[in-house]
């Protein structure tokens, strides 16, 4: 899910063409290359979770020892996560995951718009109606966002709670261009949400430049200001992410993308003071009433430990993944030939995640889902795992980026991880070669063993 991709226990539903998960055999021989869908837990993360389960089982709001221990773990984790993303501890609000965080930002923006819009503001916008249409809060996002952003925006639009503009990604750069976003701004724009890195192409979006331009615009506009959000799910743990340097008001953090458990957090620049944050839930006052509910101490402990590891070892992780991804792309070209390979993650002038290779093996009968269903070792996906029920259709994200339908239909999203080796790459590429040979494609004949 770019904030939380669904994921089957053997790697990805799309890789098995509807076969039962129990049919997956020889797990130790499988080569996992779907780290953009989910990551395993680091050993130190498992240890932190286990210790919290055993020693910090108390309610964090309680005064006795197990409760105080839980509160201490939560506070330390908040510090570690804040340090990882360049914020302050008070800027971190724990969430169930990225989907909740993204929904909270959108609903906050809508409610804050109306709270800030008195009669004078409505009049500035042209009255309650303009050209026969009611004035509504306006949201700008892109057409390549994760579903937890896309569907939230569509829901608000369909329910008549907001106007939404979906800015198209450039078919040249694969990016959401700053000028296109700026051109979509209206007097009633209340939120701009553009992901930090795309979960399928790996393209990094110009969020920092966008924030600089919008903040300058905000200084000239009457209140309420345009709020700025980025879903950082795919970027955190792979590239340096500093919320203060980016200039965002909100940053979504998703644990299971950086070797933490399935829990998340939302960075908010001064929640409730500098930046609005209005709760969707109401309860016992936890998380300063922004997200009440008794804290999930063990999972928060795991998230904090994973954040600590990112802060300590990010350069090492990034360097390794980039090296392995480059080797993967070299081997794909060497085995299949440059004319048979199209990298859907290569766009001129655009930076990409160090670990993501979106590639199509060209030829009839080589649709991505079909190739993956025939692989004996490779575990990968054709795109976001939350779209695994649509494997026979080209990715709308690739199509939006200008990839031709017949090429997009053959796409494989191969995402490597911290422990992926060159030997893993060799085994995966050989598995692909053997599978392509058996597919009903004229092109496959030239790849048959001599």
From TrEMBL:
<keyword id="KW-0808">Transferase</keyword>
<dbReference type="Pfam" id="PF00266">
    <property type="entry name" value="Aminotran_5"/>
</dbReference>
<comment type="function">
    <text>Catalyzes the decomposition of L-selenocysteine to L-alanine and elemental selenium.</text>
</comment>
<dbReference type="GO" id="GO:0016740">
    <property type="term" value="F:transferase activity"/>
</dbReference>
<dbReference type="GO" id="GO:0005829">
    <property type="term" value="C:cytosol"/>
</dbReference>
<dbReference type="InterPro" id="IPR015422">
    <property type="entry name" value="PyrdxlP-dep_Trfase_small"/>
</dbReference>
<keyword id="KW-0663">Pyridoxal phosphate</keyword>
<keyword id="KW-0963">Cytoplasm</keyword>
<dbReference type="InterPro" id="IPR016454">
    <property type="entry name" value="Cysteine_dSase"/>
</dbReference>
<protein>
    <recommendedName>
        <fullName>Selenocysteine lyase</fullName>
        <ecNumber>4.4.1.16</ecNumber>
    </recommendedName>
</protein>
<dbReference type="InterPro" id="IPR015421">
    <property type="entry name" value="PyrdxlP-dep_Trfase_major"/>
</dbReference>
<dbReference type="InterPro" id="IPR000192">
    <property type="entry name" value="Aminotrans_V_dom"/>
</dbReference>
<feature type="domain" description="Aminotransferase class V">
    <location>
        <begin position="31"/>
        <end position="124"/>
    </location>
</feature>
<keyword id="KW-0456">Lyase</keyword>
<feature type="domain" description="Aminotransferase class V">
    <location>
        <begin position="138"/>
        <end position="426"/>
    </location>
</feature>
<dbReference type="GO" id="GO:0009000">
    <property type="term" value="F:selenocysteine lyase activity"/>
</dbReference>
<dbReference type="InterPro" id="IPR015424">
    <property type="entry name" value="PyrdxlP-dep_Trfase"/>
</dbReference>
<comment type="similarity">
    <text>Belongs to the class-V pyridoxal-phosphate-dependent aminotransferase family.</text>
</comment>
<comment type="subunit">
    <text>Homodimer.</text>
</comment>
